[in-house]
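quick q for whoever's on today - can somebody do inverse folding on this one?? i tried earlier but teh output was garbage lol. tokens:
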């Protein structure tokens, strides 16, 4: 005889004020010469590093998340009308990240310093949460509680009793802990001083699911 079970998916929802600023920067340098490209890229990175140090950060605060150098080619037609690959030079692509506690005044000072350093990186600013493990733990507790509440309602409505938990299914994955508040690059570069304004980022809203299987009697 097959064991009778009840399977329920629980959903945990959480809303929390962000307490972390994440600035990501992309630097791309292209010249016809490999050594010149690496030299220019190094100067740009040092300019950014000096800029953040000038407003109170440690040298190690600026992190590299990706770095690569590649040859660039352009497709052109020759005299006979055939497409050929023409060498354009070398590109150095450097992705950088700077994280710090949420403070709009400090953000304004940081953006202003970087905007004036001459490196002209592409910007992206996000607001997140520092203690990601605590968020995930609370979400799981809420998801299991939600599943249990639903299971109790279904069991009562069906005239059965919940038995022991037989199985819990959860897919571990990285949560996207970002506020919907974003700053576009044009706004950052055109008016960096505006970041001294009292801007309140939206809360971070996140959810997660867990599936619980009970035996029923």
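ok took a stab at it. sequence:
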């Amino acid at each position: 005889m097959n064991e009778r079970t009840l399977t329920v998916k629980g959903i945990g929802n959480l809303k929390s004020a962000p307490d972390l600023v994440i600035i990501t920067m992309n630097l791309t340098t292209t010249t016809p010469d490999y050594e010149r490209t690496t030299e220019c890229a190094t100067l740009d990175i040092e300019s950014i590093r000096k800029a953040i140090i000038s407003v109170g950060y440690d040298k190690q605060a600026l992190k590299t998340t990706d770095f690569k150098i590649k040859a660039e080619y352009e497709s052109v037609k020759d005299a006979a009308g055939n497409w050929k690959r023409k060498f354009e030079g070398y590109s150095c692509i450097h992705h950088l990240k700077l994280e710090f506690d949420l403070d709009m005044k400090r953000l304004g000072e940081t953006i202003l310093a970087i905007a004036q350093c001459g490196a002209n990186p592409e910007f992206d600013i996000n607001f997140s949460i520092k203690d990601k493990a605590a968020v995930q733990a609370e979400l799981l507790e809420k998801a299991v509680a939600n599943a249990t509440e639903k299971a109790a309602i279904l069991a009562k409505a069906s005239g059965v009793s919940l038995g022991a938990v037989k199985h819990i299914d959860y897919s571990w994955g990285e949560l996207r802990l970002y506020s919907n508040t974003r700053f576009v690059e044009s706004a950052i570069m055109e008016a960096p001083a505006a970041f001294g304004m009292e801007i309140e980022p939206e809360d971070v809203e996140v959810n997660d699911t867990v599936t619980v299987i009970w035996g029923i009697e």
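fwiw The mean pLDDT is 88. also Strands lie at 5-16, 20-31, 63-77, 83-101, 122-128, 162-169, 204-216. so keep that in mind when u check it
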